[in-house]
């Protein structure tokens, strides 16, 4: 008699990890409501609303000025490591990843078309959170003994709130390491291995190895090398992807009205659709949109502040605008393009053996859904592969590659901060630790590429919350400073400084 194979550790972990994720984001356990509201969703949107109102809707009113400032941002105008535009490109390279292609599809699969409305709302409030993070990142920066400026939430907690809040900075850094290894590495490595496999038939472990080597070649040079690559690759890849999506939508222009009707109706009404998605209640649509919106644009998570902190500017307001522009480009522009293509383009799709019109109604999940929609828009074959599949796969590979570069730096900053709390830490020790982290990072890329994705995505939701919660508390405590920075008061708020025997020598 044949015996069934015992489930792997990863498969056994899916259920408990899913329960923790659902409790944090929806307030349910084993599908049963434990809390009558979605905790993380309320906290994230609530903080975004608080900052937005306190800023008097600055992110929306000043969006035009922020776009105009993109060109000025190419010039350095102060101390730092890379230009303000390179800092934005670096932050964007961390933001624009698998969340923009696979994450949007996952949101639609979980919450239906209505999830996209809540993704937009998350992005609007996220622009306020991003402004707060970017401006605080410049207002509070630390200087190492050899003159390098750096920062992020751990630094604006220490310098803006004082030494008694060190525990909050430590909790943020632990959350950052968790999030870096899961969402910044394993999920991305998984997605790029899938893309290489679909395009070239490369085994996933080999795809992981190739990507790990290429990432190591760039990150060995630190933030300047990462910024240099991001500044060249990110604008090109984002523009090319948007152009292809716009062409797909022009070809299917007649169905766009129906798509927007689906999004707005689904945002406020439980709906059942034919095919793979059935009966998503409004709360699930909200959860899917907010969770995937955060995964994509990272607003409120604190990660992009680490990139903006190294910008060559002494103007917190200017870099705050750059940061909020990153959220706008990532979610309002790129994620929306992906969503509209998935929801609008018609093709030969099936669900449970029956023909359906659109990719979102089909059995396809994650990146496969996005790739399928683009393949239906551009079915012409090139080397035996639909041009649409080539476009989506190349975009995914480039998006994910640059995300892996930037998140390696975020993890590096977190691990450095924790090391600097130890007695006797010094700059030489930091540099050795950086090298060890970069090697470990590339090993995890190789290992993560071949892992099943369901567990990693659920862990991603938990790790994002672990990073966002301490940062959102810091933003709440420093919100008064943020409101003054938006008025152009560059030295707003107290600066808590203390001499330390470790790195940096002064906080």
UniProtKB/TrEMBL annotation:
* Keywords, in A-Z order: Cell inner membrane, Cell membrane, Membrane, Symport, Transmembrane, Transmembrane helix, Transport
Q: Which organism is it from?
A: Qipengyuania gaetbuli
Source species, domain of life = Bacteria
Q: Which family does it belong to?
A: Belongs to the alanine or glycine:cation symporter (AGCS) (TC 2.A.25) family.
NCBIfam families (alphabetical) = agcS (TIGR00835)
Instruction: Tell me a GO cellular component.
Output: plasma membrane
Indicate where this protein is primarily found.
Answer: membrane
| Database matches in Pfam families | Na_Ala_symp
Q: Which InterPro entries match?
A: Na/Ala_symport (IPR001463)
Q: What is this protein called?
A: Amino acid carrier protein
Under Gene3D superfamilies, the record lists: Amino acid/polyamine transporter I
Residue ranges annotated as transmembrane are: 40-61, 82-110, 116-138, 165-185, 205-226, 233-251, 271-290, 322-343, 387-411, 432-450, 462-483
Q: Signal peptide: which range, if any?
A: none
User: Could you cite one Gene Ontology molecular function of this protein?
Assistant: amino acid:sodium symporter activity
Cell location? Cell inner membrane; Cell membrane
- Report membrane topology: Multi-pass membrane protein
């Amino acid at each position: 008699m044949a015996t069934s194979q015992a489930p792997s550790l990863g498969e056994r972990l899916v259920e408990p990890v899913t329960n923790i994720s659902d409790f944090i984001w929806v307030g349910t356990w084993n599908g049963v409501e434990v809390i009558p509201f979605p905790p993380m969703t309320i906290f994230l949107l609530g903080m975004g609303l608080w900052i937005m109102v306190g800023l008097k809707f600055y992110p929306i009113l000043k969006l035009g000025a922020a776009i105009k400032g993109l060109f000025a941002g190419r010039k350095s105008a102060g101390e730092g490591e890379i230009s303000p535009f390179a800092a934005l490109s670096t932050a964007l390279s961390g933001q624009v990843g698998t969340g923009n292609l696979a994450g949007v599809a996952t949101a639609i699969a979980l919450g239906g078309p209505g999830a996209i409305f809540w993704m937009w709302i998350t992005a609007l409030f996220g622009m306020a959170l991003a402004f707060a993070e970017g401006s605080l990142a410049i207002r509070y920066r630390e200087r190492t003994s050899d003159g390098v400026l750096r920062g992020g939430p751990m630094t604006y907690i220490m310098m803006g709130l004082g030494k008694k809040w060190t525990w909050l900075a430590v909790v943020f850094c632990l959350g950052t390491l968790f999030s870096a290894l899961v969402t910044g590495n394993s999920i991305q490595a998984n997605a790029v291995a899938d893309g290489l496999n679909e395009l070239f038939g490369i085994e996933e472990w080999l795809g992981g190895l190739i990507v790990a080597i290429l990432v190591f070649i760039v990150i060995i040079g630190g933030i300047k090398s990462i910024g240099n690559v991001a500044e060249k690759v990110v604008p090109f890849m984002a523009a090319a992807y948007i152009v292809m999506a716009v062409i797909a939508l022009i070809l299917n222009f007649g169905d766009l009205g129906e798509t927007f009707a689906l999004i707005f109706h689904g945002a406020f009404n439980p709906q059942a659709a034919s095919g793979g998605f059935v009966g998503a209640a409004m709360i699930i649509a909200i959860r899917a949109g907010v969770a995937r919106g955060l995964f994509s644009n990272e607003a409120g998570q604190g990660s992009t502040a680490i990139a903006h902190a190294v910008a060559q500017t002494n103007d917190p307001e200017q870099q705050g605008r750059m940061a909020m522009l990153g959220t706008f480009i990532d979610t309002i522009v790129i994620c929306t393009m992906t969503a509209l293509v998935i929801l609008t383009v018609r093709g030969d799709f099936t669900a449970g053996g029956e023909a359906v019109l659109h990719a979102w109604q089909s059995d396809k999940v994650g990146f496969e859904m996005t790739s399928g929609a683009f393949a239906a828009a551009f079915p012409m074959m090139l080397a035996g592969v639909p041009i649409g599949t080539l476009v989506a796969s190349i975009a995914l590979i480039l998006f994910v590659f640059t995300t892996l570069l930037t998140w390696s730096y975020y993890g590096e900053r977190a691990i450095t901060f924790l090391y600097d709390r130890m007695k006797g830490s010094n700059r030489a020790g930091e540099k050795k630790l950086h090298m060890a982290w970069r090697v470990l990072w590339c090993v995890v890329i190789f290992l993560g590429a071949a892992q099943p994705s369901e567990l990693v995505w659920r862990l991603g939701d938990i790790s994002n919350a672990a990073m966002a919660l301490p940062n959102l508390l810091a933003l709440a405590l420093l919100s008064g400073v943020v409101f003054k920075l938006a008025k152009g008061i560059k030295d707003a708020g107290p600066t808590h400084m203390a001499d330390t025997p470790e790195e940096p020598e002064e906080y």
